């Protein structure tokens, strides 16, 4: 029935150089969630990230934005999950997704890393398990594989950022549905959203 989400992780790269880049869509969503829940993220060395504990709809949640670079995201996730004994199935990873257009966000359970270095490292640090949930924030694709690196590390124009923010707002509104009613109901709502 309900996925017992206990940890929500937002992926991105640290430092002002990467602020508001497409690759940081996941980190931005979790930062906004922390703000909404009046539970500001603070640096926590042992978790290699910025961390807070919050309550959403009566559910206790750990919120984490790794301060490692994207390709080492698993270090932070694994450190926190192992400290609080959170099983991989109770982790929700929020990340940018090239295969989804801006203005859309999708939930899913499991799956491969699709070339996403953050996901690749998390799967590896969980001993090859990919059983965590993903909240994928669409950033679109530049149309050519050679352009992907500079595309994800670039800042989107404001029209595109507005679409991403609309999808982020809807995804945040769906989190209580996920916690209360489970993955299927949350997916039904989120996946029917049109910006």
TrEMBL record:
<dbReference type="GO" id="GO:0006515">
    <property type="term" value="P:protein quality control for misfolded or incompletely synthesized proteins"/>
</dbReference>
<dbReference type="InterPro" id="IPR036416">
    <property type="entry name" value="Pept_tRNA_hydro_sf"/>
</dbReference>
<keyword id="KW-0820">tRNA-binding</keyword>
<keyword id="KW-0694">RNA-binding</keyword>
<dbReference type="GO" id="GO:0004045">
    <property type="term" value="F:peptidyl-tRNA hydrolase activity"/>
</dbReference>
<comment type="similarity">
    <text>Belongs to the PTH family.</text>
</comment>
<feature type="active site" description="Proton acceptor">
    <location>
        <position position="23"/>
    </location>
</feature>
<comment type="function">
    <text>Catalyzes the release of premature peptidyl moieties from peptidyl-tRNA molecules trapped in stalled 50S ribosomal subunits, and thus maintains levels of free tRNAs and 50S ribosomes.</text>
</comment>
<keyword id="KW-0378">Hydrolase</keyword>
<feature type="binding site">
    <location>
        <position position="69"/>
    </location>
    <ligand>
        <name>tRNA</name>
    </ligand>
</feature>
<dbReference type="GO" id="GO:0005737">
    <property type="term" value="C:cytoplasm"/>
</dbReference>
<dbReference type="GO" id="GO:0072344">
    <property type="term" value="P:rescue of stalled ribosome"/>
</dbReference>
<keyword id="KW-0963">Cytoplasm</keyword>
<feature type="site" description="Stabilizes the basic form of H active site to accept a proton">
    <location>
        <position position="96"/>
    </location>
</feature>
<dbReference type="Pfam" id="PF01195">
    <property type="entry name" value="Pept_tRNA_hydro"/>
</dbReference>
<dbReference type="InterPro" id="IPR018171">
    <property type="entry name" value="Pept_tRNA_hydro_CS"/>
</dbReference>
<comment type="subunit">
    <text>Monomer.</text>
</comment>
<feature type="binding site">
    <location>
        <position position="71"/>
    </location>
    <ligand>
        <name>tRNA</name>
    </ligand>
</feature>
<protein>
    <recommendedName>
        <fullName>Peptidyl-tRNA hydrolase</fullName>
        <ecNumber>3.1.1.29</ecNumber>
    </recommendedName>
</protein>
<feature type="site" description="Discriminates between blocked and unblocked aminoacyl-tRNA">
    <location>
        <position position="13"/>
    </location>
</feature>
<dbReference type="InterPro" id="IPR001328">
    <property type="entry name" value="Pept_tRNA_hydro"/>
</dbReference>
<dbReference type="GO" id="GO:0000049">
    <property type="term" value="F:tRNA binding"/>
</dbReference>
<comment type="function">
    <text>Hydrolyzes ribosome-free peptidyl-tRNAs (with 1 or more amino acids incorporated), which drop off the ribosome during protein synthesis, or as a result of ribosome stalling.</text>
</comment>
<feature type="binding site">
    <location>
        <position position="117"/>
    </location>
    <ligand>
        <name>tRNA</name>
    </ligand>
</feature>
<feature type="binding site">
    <location>
        <position position="18"/>
    </location>
    <ligand>
        <name>tRNA</name>
    </ligand>
</feature>
């Amino acid at each position: 029935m309900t996925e017992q989400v206990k940890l929500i992780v937002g992926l991105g790269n640290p430092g002002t150089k990467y602020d508001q880049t497409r690759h940081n869509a996941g980190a931005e969503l979790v930062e906004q969630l922390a703000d909404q829940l009046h539970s500001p993220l603070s640096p926590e060395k042992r978790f290699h990230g910025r961390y807070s504990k919050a309550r959403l709809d009566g559910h206790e949640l750990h919120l984490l934005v790794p301060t490692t670079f994207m390709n080492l995201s698993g270090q932070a996730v694994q450190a926190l999950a192992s400290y609080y004994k959170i099983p991989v199935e109770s982790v929700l990873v929020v990340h940018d997704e090239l295969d989804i257009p801006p203005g859309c966000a999708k939930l899913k359970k499991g799956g491969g890393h699709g070339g996403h270095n953050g996901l690749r490292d998390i799967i590896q640090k969980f001993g090859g398990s990919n059983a965590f949930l993903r909240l994928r924030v669409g950033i679109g694709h530049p149309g050519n594989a050679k352009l992907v690196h500079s595309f994800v590390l670039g800042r989107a124009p404001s029209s595109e950022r507005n679409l991403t923010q609309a999808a982020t707002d809807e995804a945040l509104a769906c989190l209580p549905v996920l916690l209360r009613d489970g993955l299927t109901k949350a997916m039904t709502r989120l996946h029917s959203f049109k910006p």
